[in-house]
Amino acid sequence: MTATTTTATASLSDDGTANDSAADVSAGDRGRTRIADRVVEKIAARAVAEVDRATGTPRQVLGVRLGSTGSDTPARVDADVDGGVVTVAVSMAVRWPAPIREVARQVRGHVTERLEALTGLEVAHVDIEVPTLQTRAQDEDRRVI
């Protein structure tokens, strides 16, 4: 089965009226769109935040956490866009006592779904690292007396 598609284009004449013409316009003639890695990272971090029991994790230096983990802490995401394919690495925390594998599966699916819907890119894979569990004690402010 073969299908022929025709794209209708509209242009304005000198007097401001629209001139409609049916012409085939190839993708190369229209230009191209490049989505930066940073944009994909922000979309993926937001998608992680939309999953219940998944949250971000603070940065660590030599095994010592810098800052605290809260519900508003974004996940750390690294994305690599190569043409129309993207690979994503997510570092996040899971709220205790949630099943880590189940939350990771939900995050992987949701990140893939949101990236494909919002960017049109194909998601090759989403790697997930869970270096910490978020407990209730970590949510509360700690005071030093």
What does this structure look like?
The chain is an alpha+beta fold and 145 residues long. The protein has one domain (33-139): 2-Layer Sandwich (Alpha-Beta Plaits), CATH 3.30.70.1350. Helices cover 28% and strands 35% of the residues. The chain has four helices and eight strands; from the N terminus they run ββααβββββαβα. The protein has helices spanning 27-30, 37-49, 100-119, 136-139, and strands at 7-12, 18-23, 54-55, 59-61, 64-66, 76-82, 85-95, 122-134. Strands 3, 6, 7 and 8 form a four-stranded mixed beta sheet that branches. Strands 1-2 form a two-stranded antiparallel sheet. A hairpin with a 5-residue loop joins strand 1 and strand 2 (18-23). The radius of gyration is 22 Å and the shape is elongated.
Lay out the secondary structure:
Elements: E1 7-12, E2 18-23, H1 27-30, H2 37-49, E3 54-55, E4 59-61, E5 64-66, E6 76-82, E7 85-95, H3 100-119, E8 122-134, H4 136-139
- End-to-end CA span: 76 Å
Task: Tally the helices.
Answer: 4
CATH class: Alpha Beta
Tell me about the biggest sheet?
Answer: 4 strands, mixed
- Shape category: elongated
Structure classification: alpha+beta
Q: How many β strands by DSSP?
A: 8
